[in-house]
Amino acid sequence: MTRALPVLTVLAGIVVLWYLGAVWLNSAWVHAQAERAGTTVAFGEMVALTMAQERPLLPPPHQVAGELWEGVAGHPVTSRRSLIYHGFVTFQGTMMGFALGIVIGVALAMSIVRFRVMEMSVMPWAIISQTVPIVALAPMILVLANQLGVEGRDLPKAVIAAYLSFFPVLVSMVKGLRNPDQMQLDLLRTYGASEAQTFRKLRIPASMPYFFASLKVAIAAALVGTIVGELPTGAIEGLGARMLIGSQFGEPLIMWAALVAAAILAGMLILAVGALEGGVRRRMGGTNV
Amino acid sequence: MFSPPPNPEWLAGAALVWLGLWALNVGLAGSAFGRTAAGRAAVPALFGIAVLVLWEGVVRGYVVSQVILPAPSVIGAKLATELPTLWGDFVQTILKGALPGFLIGCGAAVATAIAIDRSPFLQRGLLPIGNFVAALPIVGLAPILVMWFGFDWQSKAALVVVMVFFPVLVNMVAGLQASERMQRDLMATWGASYWQSLLKLRLPAAMPFLFNGLKIASTLALIGAIVAEFFGSPIYGMGFRISTEVGRLGLDMVWATIAVAAIAGSAFYGLIALIERGVTFWHPSQRH
User: Fold this and answer.
1) Engineering a disulfide at A105: which of A85, A111, A170, B271 sits with its beta carbon 3.0 to 4.6 angstroms away?
2) What letter would DSSP give residue B93?
3) Do B218 and A131 touch (CB under 8 A)?
4) Do B227 and A243 touch (CB under 8 A)?
């Protein structure tokens, strides 16, 4: 309770601010309508009208919640209007990119820890790669994939997601694989362990806490990457595409519902990674860190 | 795809250069020179050059079409001839969109962190929410902010403000708690007021955390400024240039814009790292 109370208070504050903002932003439209009709609106009336507009500048929370509920429960999951359907498309892209990002990140980290020349050559470029705004590459990756004859948008989306998510894995894994101290490494050498055995029996188990810490960052990054991959150049499926459609057709409610759905998806993914981490830690015989 | 390349000599030459540079790098990395500052810069530079040579060789060797992958030399030529256009895009996107947004967002985050510093209740409430929001795909707000603030740079700056705010806030709040109990007690025994202790102990102690947040924010700022342009922009700006040139299959111009974005992003990041080294010279991570 001591932990929930402050969070709930801040959340309540945000909702209040949101309502105030909705009244403030949407009142202009109400006044304009009233002026056109040649009438004036009382304050109470005006507030009521700002709460239920078709195309509000800022939809109040209950309108967004209503639209979200309709998107989730109002259509069969195979329908193009269902947010579950679009959310699943985005989820698939996220998982593909996430998996690709983990593979690339771990592979690079292992070769960097193993070979000094790799560390010196690749590590600076890995850092530079993250200062390149990936979204600049997104439309081009789509065209490139198209030219190479790759059908659909799954692969380009996964590439963008992987580009964003490999970096936290790489950085943490380099740290984690270097986590064993010299004494432990020396011990394995006295056993006559090969490099591969050192990795398998010492370095990789020792890096697990770092690995899972990075996964939480990486999955959030993969989701951002997937949504960015869905935004440009006319995608039709996925939460990013929903936002785009809402923007192009001037339907703010669709945009907001997709945005909230993306937030919920992000929360669920992070929780899932946390649960996975707990499970692995218990199986490896660890205690709570 | 696997037919013999039309110009094998280009491919073979590039492969030879690649192997040569790689062997040189292996040598350098193991040598004493590889441990000096010059060696530390030379090895990644050689790696970058080797990648460019290989790229050029593959494009020329297989005669890859311009609309798939232009060669680095073609991109370089485009960069040189289109410099005024690229400069205009740079001013619009980076100087007008990303930079003001970055400054406002980071300033607001630091101010908020200091404002809630005296209320542990608010901190306990804001920190989990801030952490969660920092993980959300805030770029999705782009269409909404373009609707509110119009097509010009204001909407781009607004998106950047929202994107950088939470990562910086979370880091700054953590940073303000980073000073040790003992140090704070020492300030108290000297009779330091809240503000004195904040200015002389806790703000300096928060700097490594703040710069961590600023570095994350610097890349987010560029992403925000460019993505917002996909949803509407004047007829210049880097995001606009990329989306229109992709449509016209002018991939050399797209790559030239990406090169500008990469250089701008790295310079931005480097600048922050440089300031960090000056401000947090006392921190263990800065001692070499």
Assistant:
1) A170
2) I
3) yes
4) no
